[in-house]
Structures are given as structure tokens and as C-alpha cells.
Amino acid sequence: MSNIKRDIMSLELDALTQEMILLNEKKFRGIQVFEWLHQKDCFTWKGMNNLPKALLVKLEEHAYITEMQMVTKQTSGHDGTTKFLFKLYDGQMIETVLMRYDYGNSVCISTQAGCRMGCTFCASGLNGLERNLTTGEMLRQVYAVEREIGKRITHVVLMGTGEPLDNYDAVLGFIKIITHDKGKNLSQRHITLSTCGMVDGIRRLASEKLQINLAISLHASDDELRKQTMPIAKKYSIDEILTACEAYFISTGRRITFEYALIAGHNDHPSQARALADLLRFRKFKCHVNLIPINNVVEKAFAKSNQKEVARFRDILLDKKVETTIRRSLGTDIDAACGQLRFNAMKK
């Protein structure tokens, strides 16, 4: 190891075993450390009680375990959704959301502190991007929630603050570690990655041949409308995004989800529903539309569509044979909008 301390929680197993060799230790020690961190949720060197004291001294000298402090949490009185605010080593704040379903406990994690995508209806990027999160900081969000509730997290959504494909390598490390059989052994099919449409990242992800679910934040049926709310649309057209989605489907066989945040008077007209259906229904991949009534954000000038308009939009898509659901609104009595809890905390 070098003189610079390593973020040991961010190391995949092969890299960790190589670090053991550099410390003149047996490779199996790497497996032991990996299991302590990612299977047994041990975040102190002293807690790793099957490791020799001499090795523990070396580890403390050459590596550190990702730190994270829970600042506050908000729990919905309506549905039990819990939003956590965590403080990182450098004072940055991130938020994580626990959602309870009949099929298990799902956690929505952040991949960046802030966001540089600048989507005009989203609270995540109100202060821009501060920095990328490490793989370890993503993992600790899951582990911290598990420890808090005393139950296993069965599903993970990379849909919190930040654009996952803008932090590609760390996100890929997260996926590989949390699905490793020496760690949480979470099924790849229980992981969903949401992107605003970074085409290069989607194509790169397709080449990994993973089995994770891909969700695209589309929010418009044509490029001009999309440019009004999503700056990324100036770089990548909808056609480029859909072509990349086809490549992902061919590589993985996984259905693509298209997220469509309904904004009153902006993108919820029946003509836009028909255009969206025409855009998707003849594609060479399986897809699904998830309609999202947006959460109101004080700092934004947008309002969510009413229930009647949302239902009408859904029915048009269904009539045109496009599989569609309306996302159930969770945590409406707490800081529900993505990035809102963090933003309010950073203002203080």
C-alpha cells in the first residue's frame, strides 16, 4: 500500500486481496476483511476479531473505513416511508430514502452530493454538484438503513440525489460489491439505475452485461419540449437515447422503464400522451412507462398534474398498448421531493 490511506470499503474483493499481498499477508485475509465490511456490517478495525493484531495495526495505518453520521430522519405518518439525512467526513450532506413494500424493503440512495444535470423541476441540483460519492459512501447508505431498521434491504434504487452515470466507476463498484456472494449477495435484478439519458454511459453499461434494471428519466415526447426542463437534452436527442436503450436491451434482455414526471400545463396534454405512445410502442425492446406526479418544490415554479389528468394520460398510453403504471406517491407529509431534505439542511 502507498502512504496515502485507502478507502477500504470501496475496494472490490480482487483489489482487496491484492492489498493484503502488498501488506505481506495471505490472500484469504482479504476475504475476511471483505466479509466483515460487507456481510457483517463491521465498521471498526477492533471489531474484526478473527484478524491478527499485527494485521489490524497495518490496516489502521494504511486504510480507513468510510464514515457516515445520521443527522436526522423523517418518517411519514401515512405510509412509513423514512427519509434519512447523512453527514459525510467533509461535512457534505446526502439523503437516502427507505420505502416499505409488501415484497420487501427498498432503499433509494444518492450517488453524488448535489447534481450538475440542472433539471428545472428537481430539487437535487439546486446548489449544483459538490462532489461524487465514493463506492463506500453509497454502500454505507444501505448498511446504515439496514442497521437502523434491523431488517434486510431487498431492493436498491440509484435514483436519489445525483446522476449515477456521471459517477460511473464508483457506481459500478457499488453494484459489484453489493451483489457479491461474500457481501450482501443482493440480486442484480433487484437494483434499478435511473439516468437522465447519458447515452455514452448507457452504452458503456450495456457492455458490462449486468442484469440490473435501467430507468430513463424522459419527461417529454419530443426534443424541444425536453430541452425546456432538461439541459441534457441539448447534448443527447431522444432518438439517441432510445437507440442506446435498444443496445442495452439486446445485451441484457432487461425491460426498460421510462419515467415521465407529469407537470401541470407543461407535458400532461393528451396530445403528448399520444406522441409518447407513438414514440415507444414499435421499438425493438420491452418497455414500461412509469408516470410520476411531481412533488411540489417551493423554489421551483412547477406544479403537479391533478389526478384526473394523470389518469387520462395513463389511459391513452394503455389504449395504445404501452404498458403504463402511476407511481404511488410516498412520503408526501415529509420533505418528499428528491434533494429537498438535503437542500433545506444546507441552507441552515
Automatic annotation (TrEMBL):
Signal peptide: none annotated. GO terms for biological process: rRNA base methylation; tRNA methylation. It catalyses: adenosine(2503) in 23S rRNA + 2 reduced [2Fe-2S]-[ferredoxin] + 2 S-adenosyl-L-methionine = 2-methyladenosine(2503) in 23S rRNA + 5'-deoxyadenosine + L-methionine + 2 oxidized [2Fe-2S]-[ferredoxin] + S-adenosyl-L-homocysteine; adenosine(37) in tRNA + 2 reduced [2Fe-2S]-[ferredoxin] + 2 S-adenosyl-L-methionine = 2-methyladenosine(37) in tRNA + 5'-deoxyadenosine + L-methionine + 2 oxidized [2Fe-2S]-[ferredoxin] + S-adenosyl-L-homocysteine. The active site is at E95 (proton acceptor), C338 (s-methylcysteine intermediate). Its cofactor is [4Fe-4S] cluster. GO terms for molecular function: 4 iron, 4 sulfur cluster binding; metal ion binding; rRNA (adenine(2503)-C2-)-methyltransferase activity; rRNA binding; tRNA (adenine(37)-C2)-methyltransferase activity; tRNA binding. Specifically methylates position 2 of adenine 2503 in 23S rRNA and position 2 of adenine 37 in tRNAs. This is Probable dual-specificity RNA methyltransferase RlmN. It comes from Petrocella atlantisensis. The gene is rlmN.
